[in-house]
Amino acid sequence: MDDTPEGRRVLCRYRYYALDRVAVVDPDAQEAVSRFYQKKRLTVEIQGAMRRRVFHGEDRLLAEYQADGAAEQVDLLGTDRQSSVLHALSSEGRQPLAYSPYGHRAQGGPFSGFNGERADPVTGHYLLGNGYRAFNPVLMRFNRPDSLSPFGRGGLNAYAYCQGDPVNRSDPGGHVGVHILFLDKLPDLALGRIFRHLSFKDMAAVSGASDTLNERGAGLIALQLNKRFVDASDPGVLSNLRSAIKSETGVLPSVFKSEDFKTRFDEVVANASQKMSDRIKEAKHAEQSFSDKFTGKPNTSYDDFKKALVSKRKEHEGSLEMLLNINRDVARRTTLMGAWYTQIGLKGKMERRVADIRSLLNTP
């Protein structure tokens, strides 16, 4: 192997834009290729006079258009359930395509390939996540470790692709392989049962797997938020939701950008706020009733309670048993007051967390 500076050369340069997607692929011996995206999909490539465009219908690849000066070609694409292109039909005839289980195929044909991904023109690797990680279909693994491994959702094997199951799983983002072949066909009731066992981060990841899931995800996530936060009264739910919204990439997951989710989030917050207000009233009523009973007068104030306490202690100063009972009453009132203040504090904490989440949801 020639490791001298003269024996080494750069085969290709890649430039990324602010969202960490590949914007330009610049092969050493060819013109640079500019890439353009719609949502999460690569839709247009421009390389000098060459123009390539991909057409989708919902989550399905439909066709590719290529123009090079006056020459034009349209390929109608036949795909499997994972959007891997199996046939390309043009005016010149039909071209069948075959892949190894991990996506390796012979050169040539449309530039959309395994799972609908674009193979790198120099290495033949798939730059998943629009450039986040390169997947090598020959070695059947990623070229570099996952930032979510080994202790996060990426799993123990930081280089593994789809947990060793490329037939039933897909990994468009380069992080976590998910079963997406059937989820968007499930009714909301069945999908909701799946979401019930997921964290908010995983719900967002599943929702981002397809446009259909993304549209349905807002309502399903809001439903789980309502069950966990309002019905189960779990105070840690908002922190978990905030963590999911503030993702590792710093980019707001698409399901949380929808106005549908924001509206549903406000409805959940309104329900939770009303429930917490009711608890505050109940706690205050319990304390007030106890104080009124202690003083023998309605609407007892703090000063009224103190005066009654001094009077009772003076009246029963010779009875140890009565003084112990009075002290128990004081301790009981302190406990009731503490419960009231706790509920007020919890509501204030919720309101601050909600304001923080709303700020994140409105981040451009």
What's this entry about, in short?
The chain is an alpha+beta fold and 364 residues long. It has helices spanning 128-131, 188-195, 200-207, 211-231, 237-245, 254-257, 259-295, 302-315, 320-361; strands at residues 12-16, 22-27, 33-38, 41-47, 50-57, 60-68, 71-79, 85-90, 93-96, 126-127, 133-136, 141-142.
What is the rounded distance between the termini?
49 Å
User: Looking at the chains present, what oligomeric state does this protein adopt?
Assistant: single chain
Class derived from helix and strand content:
alpha+beta
For the record, the count of structural domains works out to: 2
- Which percent band covers the strand fraction? 15-25%
Radius of gyration: 31 Å
N-to-C SSE string, H for helix and E for strand: EEEEEEEEEEHEEHHHHHHHH
Query: How many helical elements?
Result: 9
- The tally of strands reads 12
Largest sheet strand order: 1-2-3-4-5-6-7-8-9
Mean of pLDDT: 86
Overall morphology: elongated
Point out poorly predicted stretches. none
Percent of residues in helices comes to 40-55%
Sheet with the most strands, sense and barrel status: 9 strands, antiparallel
Organism: Pseudomonas syringae UB303
InterPro entries: Rhs_assc_core
Protein name: RHS repeat-associated core domain-containing protein
What do you see in this structure?
This protein is of the alpha+beta class and 364 residues long. It has two domains: 10-139, no CATH class; 189-364. Helices cover 40% and strands 19% of the residues. It has helices spanning 128-131, 188-195, 200-207, 211-231, 237-245, 254-257, 259-295, 302-315, 320-361, and strands at 12-16, 22-27, 33-38, 41-47, 50-57, 60-68, 71-79, 85-90, 93-96, 126-127, 133-136, 141-142. The strands form two sheets. It has a nine-stranded antiparallel β-sheet with strand order 1-2-3-4-5-6-7-8-9, with no helix packed on it. Strands 10-11-12 form a three-stranded antiparallel β-sheet. The longest helix is centred in the last third of the chain and has 42 residues, at 320-361. It starts with 11 loop residues before the first strand and ends with a helix. The model has no long low-confidence stretch (mean pLDDT 86).
